[in-house]
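FW: tagging you since you asked about this chain on Friday. Here's the raw sequence from the shared folder, copied in full. Didn't touch anything.
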Amino acid sequence: DATDIREAVAELVGLAAADVEIEITGVTQSVEQEVTFPGSVASFVTAEARQQLKSGLVSYLNDQLDGGSVSIDDVEIVSVRAAERRRLQSGGNRGVEIDYTVTSDQEIGGAFSNNPNFAEDLVAFTNSAGSAVPPIEPSEVFAEEPQISSEYTFNIIVQEDQAQIVTQGLAATVGGQTD
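HL: got it, structure written out here
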């Protein structure tokens, strides 16, 4: 967020954080995650099943985000394959590993990492998003920790007499890209 960016920029250029203001003008955040569901690959590979999974995830995110506007186009199902590494809690069924990426122009990472009931909530939204996927029991779903990456575009605001210090310090740090 802006506070973290301000502190990092101030440290890079040798100014006090109080002398630096950050105005965030854009954000792109991507979340990659693997979720293991019960069942067979055949239950999840159809276009209709993928659409239901994406719709459930989008509904979950928009429910979690204040004023969220994540769309189906922001979600990519990267792979659907038979689970190999872990057994689901019920029986010997290994299940299906589904890898997806969500990329948005808003901060979405907290909806994945700050919700201890993520798998349960995702299942509820996915079950209500259609019938292409057989009903899923939340206790049979396991979500890996999400991998979150963020890209911020921002303006650095300092006193006029400090602008040269900032420009030189950043040019030395980022190889000349100070637009």
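FW: The chain has five helices and five strands.
HL: agreed, and The chain has a mean pLDDT of 88.
FW: great, closing this out.
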